[in-house]
Amino acid sequence: MAMMPALERDLNNMSEYYESGKTKDASWRESQLKGLRSFIMEKQDHIMNALMQDLGKHQLEAFRDEIGTLIKTLNLALKSLKDWMSGKKAKLPQIALLTSAEIVPEPLGLVLIISSWNFPFGLSLEPLIGAVAAGNVAVLKPSELSPACSSLLASGIATYLDNNAIKVVQGGPEETQQLLQQRWDKIFFTGSARVGRIVMSAAVKHLTPVTLELGGKCPAVVDSLSSSWDIGTTVKRIIVGKFGTCAGQACISIDYVLVEKGYCSKLVELMKVWIKKMYGDNPQRSKTIARIVNKHHFSRLKSLLDDKMVKQSVVYGGSMDEENLFIEPTILVNPPLEAAIMSEEIFGPLLPIITVEKIEESIKFINCRPKPLAIYAFTKNQTLQRRMISETSSGSVTFNDAILQYAADSLPFGGVGESGFGMYHGKFSFDTFSHQKAVVRRSFLTDFWYRYPPWTLNKLQLLEVSYNYDYLGLLLVLLGLKRPSKRLISDHI
Amino acid sequence: MLSKATSLPIKLCCFLFILMFCNSISGARSRREQVFDGEKANFLVRELRKNFDSGRTKSYEWRVSQLEAIVKMLEEKEEEITDALYKDLSKPQFEAFISEVSQVKSSCSEALQELKHWMKPDKVKTTITTFPSSAEIVSEPLGVVLVISTWNFPFLLSMDPVIGAISAGNAVVLKPSEIAPAVSSLLVNLIEQYLDNSAVRVVEGAIPETTALLEQKWDKILYTGSARVGRIVMAAAAKHLTPVILELGGKCPAVVESDVNLQVTARRIIAGKWACNSGQACISVDYVITRKEFAPKLISALKEELEQFFGKDPIESKDMSRIVSPNQFARLVNLLDEDKVSDKIVLGGQRDEKKLRIAPTILLDVPEDAMVMQEEIFGPILPIITVGNIEDCYRIIKSKPKPLAAYLFTNNEQLKKDYVENISSGGMLINDAVIHVATRGLPFGGVEESGMGCYHGKFSFDSFSHKKSVLYRSFDADSSMRYPPYTPQKEKLLKAIIGGNIVQIILALLGWS
Known about the structure:
Chain A is built from 19 helices and 18 strands. Chain A has helices at residues 3-19, 26-42, 44-55, 59-85, 122-133, 147-160, 173-181, 193-203, 228-242, 264-279, 283-286, 295-304, 308-312, 340-343, 361-367, 382-391, 427-432, 457-467, 471-478; strands at residues 88-89, 100-107, 110-114, 137-141, 166-168, 186-190, 210-213, 219-222, 256-260, 314-316, 320-321, 326-327, 330-333, 350-356, 374-378, 396-399, 420-421, 434-441. Chain A has a 7-stranded mixed β-sheet, sandwiched between helices. Chain A has a 6-stranded mixed β-sheet with strand order 5-4-3-6-7-17, with helices on both faces. In chain A, helix 2 (26-42) runs antiparallel to helix 4, helix 2 runs antiparallel to helix 5 (122-133) and helix 18 packs antiparallel against helix 19. By secondary structure, chain B is of the alpha/beta class. Helices cover 46% and strands 16% of the residues of chain B. Chain B has a 7-stranded mixed β-sheet, with helices on both faces. A 6-stranded mixed β-sheet of chain B has the order 5-4-3-6-7-17, sandwiched between helices. Chain B has a 3-stranded antiparallel β-sheet with strand order 1-2-18. Strand 16 of chain A pairs parallel with strand 18 of chain B, so a sheet runs across the interface.
């Protein structure tokens, strides 16, 4: 606990810096965004190395999922900053004479970003971009499970950004606990539901608003596609959406597949073909698939296959290399639904395929389980598409692809129910770290005498027509030409 | 045992006594059975969830039918509503109509007018990173939501969030405040009579009932009240990862510069304090900051206008609400009777414990550590703090938690600009008080200690909805660049596409970069 006084002192300094107003300046925000962009572009190789070291992530994955998306977001933020910062005028009805109203975004103050280990750069910096663009000062707590990335973030941010305003605190659960004891104006958390509850409970003390980006079992519904091109593309996208994205260790990874009984074997065969094409006969040797992050998660995944019935349902893969923390792409067909592999979020390269009689039954299957962060559906059937949207609930729905929704700036990225609440990406990041202040300006010139006591029937009548924006009514009452309606007559007046 | 000689009246008394005794036992038993505990709360939520899952509340028709029923309810039962408000708060019918009934009606009309538009998915643009694709944001109801309301605007602060919840397609349970019992039980009757009981319910009660409700899993909770209970609500919500909207309070300052139209300013401050539920409102003007030299002018203008509004003996005026309860009355009297405060009264100070009334009271320059300057007043007491320079107001306001509203009276454009820049509050109103919350198109909510989240109008609809992202991709145009095995050429192409530079893309495609 020796950290506490130093931490409190640092946070006090950051709050004072924030109070000085420096971070509200558009030029400051722009300089920080440019600083982040320089960091990512100049240190690309270092970043890729760190990701390889912590997760065995291939550099194309590193670029596609983290470096590339961050550059895209930074370019968007720099381009849009002035627009995001400007107030939005509210249109008022004519009767609001000489009144103006607008929504002015203002920073919240001192914010805390707790990120995760699977996309250590992306999940740290995407929120940070939002926090900085919105004019806040921020503390970033990257995950200790990706230590190389964590320390690169610390050194990079110290070098490229304003240290008075943005700090990185490294460490594990103890450091996180200490951070959660402090007073924040916002906490942005990415991780598990279990820790999400701890974060939100800690936020209660200071009434700190939180955004929780959690996870869930993201299903992929695969319709019985007739075109071989379509099913081929589907299979490729499922493979990349599962094994090709941090080896299935992503909150939006395809967790399991739902397919019609009669189509299952076709799907499985095609998957086997394409896995071989993409990863060769020895996927481990191809060095294209990320490894499991640590022994704890490796053991967890291994134990998912320990169940005899589950083991029997493995139709492809299954081999595990404990020393190198590598699990090859594994497909299962119809493991028992009560087994852990079908009740917990898998977060690994094991893909259960569950068969249903008719594909529409997928809807009921999905609805029996907690709302996931994403639902995927590979289908051209527009009725099924409409039903999936209106009859299921999830953070997002993506048709005929997977993971890609993460890169769409115009779409909010966030969960619902067990998969979290709040959202970010694009302008939503800016909004999430802002307070939308309503500002109304009135003039002294228009003062309606009927607003004030003593209350009379006539005043009540006038106010009623004013409130109903009834210009003509107002005129009539003023001229004494409008009869008061019966209900205004009461003995309280 | 009773001999024939025992008189009939005595036998009758015994009989009646036994009857009463039995009655009271069975009454107690049925009262116990009627206690709303965790089990009942759980049953209620499960029932509503089943009804929600059936899909009935999602349709446009259902939502409109409920909103129209509320409009009908307001038209038919206006008198009952204002009567109940008078009973609970001695709220003048005028105030009741303008600040509660009319606001609810306006909220309903806006929802009815705009609902089709609000429910439509929001089509959004997509970029080259997901090309080719189309995307939209679909609003869907969250499910079963809980609205916990409060006593000062018991009708408005119950119905307005309920309107939001319904317009977003949710099932909703309303827990009105027991401190306004007439309105609470009226709401039970009205909602039972006018709305769809399979999806909209009211639970009356106090702490035990609220606790039972908070133990359940809700899809959203909107709470209006104090920061202390707000924390209890948020803590309960954290167990179920339930998002919350907390509409709390704070000390809403009104800064008055000397360049104002004095009469209008005084009137508007009064309208935002004493004519607003006798100062018992989360957005009431809590205290005033003004220049030292200007204070006497402001005070005499306030005195003059107060007399105009409420007569020579305002404590008797029927045009002002009373204090809601003996508890609140005692709290306010305590604030006035504190040593460092009692000699700073420049107007008012009279109180009538029996009638629960306190006269409009103005204090001048109480010390900053006085209780009346530390807690939210929520009553008809107005401290005026004087400063040398008007800019000193920033230090005073910022020394307190961020309030729900901040007011400024001035004609100086630079001061207006600086105030908006420097002061953070839920909302802000320049040259008037309180009425900004009636402005369409603006969110109503706090920041920091004054709350989180917002509602009103479309913000209500959005707050009670989940904004679901939907991305449509096609099978055509599938680039092998996305798939392993990853070659250097694929990497170059990917970089070029993310960079969005068309020349780079072409070069990469041709293998030239």
